[in-house]
Amino acid sequence: MLVGLRGVGKTVLLDRIREDAEAAGIHTVRIEAPEGRSLPSLLAPQLRQALLRLSQIEKAKDFAVRGLRALAGFAKMLKMTYADIEVGLDYEPEPGLADNGDLEHDLQALFEQVGLAAKVAETALAIFIDELQYVEEPQLAVLITAMHRTEQRRLPVVLVGAGLPQLRGQMGNAKSYAERLFDFPTVGALPPEPARLAIEKPLADESVSITPEAMDLILQVTRGYAYFLQEWGSHTWLAAKQSPILPGVVRQASVTAIAALDESFFRVRFDRLTPKEKKYLRAMAELGPGPHRSGDIAASFEAAVSSLAPTRSSLIAKGMVWSPSHGDTAFTVPMFDEFMKRIVPGDSWR
Questions:
Q1: At CA 163, angle to CA 160 and CA 166, rounded to 5?
Q2: How far apart are CA 43 and CA 41, in angstroms?
């Protein structure tokens, strides 16, 4: 499980791992988990595609077809509980196969059939899920259980997920053995040298250079976060008129880069917030980048800690904040504190 803040490049890394897997001959499916969608609705169409591909391999055809029958029973029975399941059914269900109407039992049975088809085909199936933190905890528990079952059966099904930092805790809460079943590498900001390379190499490929002072300015403002390096690199390129690129060009590019982030990357998150959630985040921003103690936020908010617990929980569910340790709260989006001060200036929020 790749965990990290928004803007650190975990999605890019997830896609790169998938590309490497496909290059090695592994079958893959790619899912993004939006808020409000059920796990069965996310998995069913992708597993159908995987099984159809496996059915084209002659020695795996019978196993893949049985997997498609399992999928038909799975979708038919769970449609009553999860109305958002939309998947084409290529075969009639096989009675008694993944059709109990119980998600935990049926998903294990379905994964077993997928795993058996992949094993006979002498390949593997890698399921890539981005924004995994949005899967509801009971359904996350079912997914973990299904993966545990495939491991016990030694079936070649792998789950690679990416999510915000709270994902580790969510999976631990869902199933206590999750931290033994999965690895949780943290994807953070780039160290200085790789961050420099991310800017300098594309410029060098175009026979353009950047002065050390200008490069230092980019590192200072982006703090090494991958997405922001891309934004500043793009805006600096557009602002530059000659080589080498000077600090003044970076300062000019910073104005347009921040404006672009405010109108897209930051604003789309801000617009999802309730007035009280906005006020909570503005109180956090007043204290700086964080993390911050709940008591300090409450004092800035001029409210009791207990009265803010529902707001904090809602912000965690929306992926706006997370708890790096008990009683602490931090932004999941780098530089969001600065954005909050720009969009809600002065003391108007109090």
A1: 125
A2: 6
Domain range 192-269, CATH class? mainly alpha
Convert the pLDDT of each residue in 28-39 to its tens digit. 999 999 888 999
What is the residue type of 265? Answer: F
Share the mean pLDDT of the chain: 93
Number of H helices, E strands in the chain: 16, 7
CATH architecture of 2-181: 3-Layer(aba) Sandwich (3.40)
Q: At what angle do helices 305-317 and 275-287 cross, to 10 degrees?
A: 100
Q: Is 319 exposed, middle or buried (0-12, 13-18, 19+ CB in 10 A)?
A: buried
Every domain of the chain and the residues it spans: 2-181, 192-269, 272-343
Q: pTM value? A: 0.84
Amino acid identity of 70? A
Residues 68-86 have a mean pLDDT of 94
Give me the CATH code for the 272-343 domain, please: 1.10.10.10
